[in-house]
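Now produce a polypeptide, keeping tokens residue-aligned:
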Amino acid sequence: MKKYFKDYTEHLSAIILLFYILGFSYQFWYYQYFEIEIQYYVTLTDIIFESIGSVLMSALIFCGIELGLATISDFLFAFFTNWKTKGKYDTLPAKVRERADRYMEYLASSNRKYYSFTLIIISVFAGLFIFNSKLYFLGIIVPNLTYRMYRIIPKIDKETNSILKISAMVMIFFILVFSYSYFGFHDASQIHYDYSSKIIKTEKIYTGDNNYKYIGETSLYIFVLNGKTNTATIINKNSINEMNVEPNRYRIEDMKKTDKQITDFIDRIRIKTENK
């Protein structure tokens, strides 16, 4: 634990820089969709604050995919091993079974990377057929694919391993920058079709009727889209005497509809179960 903590503290500046680059990539292309030059309205604190949630979510998704790959790989290995040794394992002496167990653990550990790589290749092809937004899907899973490719490449010596490791990290970095840029542009394109994500009311603008839609905000500015003229309005917070923030009734209605659909689905299952 101390070793990992030391590694993180030594690379803290690089981690903060990564947060900044990914956060700015997302925000730049998000606001660029509305032809807003966000670099003139945003501060370093805004970028770091806005990027924390997204970067942590990406890290959780990455770790979740890795955990899922490891779990499924071990399950498949155990399944095929039991199938091959069916009826033979129980007939072995206790000491032989102990040695066999250690050998199986070694095989599982050494072959997990190949099973995981095969699984993620299958997942990529399956996802390309299943998901409509293919670039969004690739932006999520390609970092894991790159990491898995690095894991299966033979390392001849420490120098080769170091070169491959740096190459993999650089590739993942550029993939993440591209992904966050695409995520920002894609999310901005959905503003036209969704309800306003935040309902605010000032002296001149109200985003609760969908004539104006809330785009986003920084510590000093609020950005609003005029749905009729398709133009963005930039409001300096210092010029606002009073601003009201209302509960988002559209989101509340959607949540109620979703809850009702889940309840109706559970009721249908319960009724079918009781009729059997």
The longest helix spans residues 44-84. The chain has a mean pLDDT of 77. The chain has two domains: 2-189, 199-275.
